[in-house]
Amino acid sequence: MIARVGLTGGIGSGKSTVANIFSEFKIPVLDLDEVGKCLTSQPDHLSMLVNAFGDRILRGNGSLDRHELARICFSDAEKTKHLNQIMHPPIWDEAEAWLARQHACYALIEASVLIESGGVSRMDDVVVVVADESIRRERVLASRDMDAASFDAIVQRQCNDDIRCATADYVIWNNAEKSVLHTKINTLHHQLMGKYSQM
Fold first, then answer.
1. For residue 131, with 0-12 CB atoms within 10 Å meaning exposed, 13-18 middle and 19 or more buried, which class applies?
2. pTM score
3. Is the CB of residue 12 less than 8 Å from the CB of residue 135?
């Protein structure tokens, strides 16, 4: 059975960059956030979300307004929990089906709320990407259509780096340039290959 390595980190930490580097080493990578986006475009899942949060989460063309759904849920812990109850089971079903098709020593499962969702219990190892919040803020405001207030709201809803690091089997600091990060991932990749090649 393929080993499952969870990858998580706060907004702006660079976990997607880390995932891309792992993919350069021919490691299968699944982004659970992207799986969720695909599922919410399907009529059955979309109708469940509308039933839970109302028509205001729909755009004029009937598609999901992700920014509005995020705004509603990030401001209310109970609504966030309800959203997770709706979406996490089918997301994990998709992940299990994907894992069954992979042929490698290990696969990387990327998720922004891996810890908050309880997904850590499904992993053999957990890699956490961390960076100073000031650097994360600068990255996000420079690269995304997001203001400082929205960034702060997301940070408040996500668990903090102390919790992430306490949960992690491996911690990657990503305050420096990409070349430094690439070297760190190369080292970690070889560690994981050595650990799981005998499975």
1. buried
2. 0.89
3. yes
